[in-house]
Design brief:
The chain is mostly helical. 89% of the residues lie in helices and 0% in strands. It has 2 helices and no strands. The mean pLDDT is 93. Belongs to the SecE/SEC61-gamma family.
Length: 64
Amino acid sequence: MAGGVKGIGKFFGDVVAEMKRVSWPTRKELTRYTLVVLGTVAFITVFFAVVDYGISALVRGLIE
């Protein structure tokens, strides 16, 4: 059991060491990346909404 506790401590120590080596984006880069993601999500949302509406209208037209 003691080996497990030491293993957990080593794991978190390794995590901290790895996080220090990470190349974090600047605030400007982070803002740009966030806007790209939000824009992409908005575009895909609108695209699928239009496709869904079109398919629904087509099916409604076939049913009636």
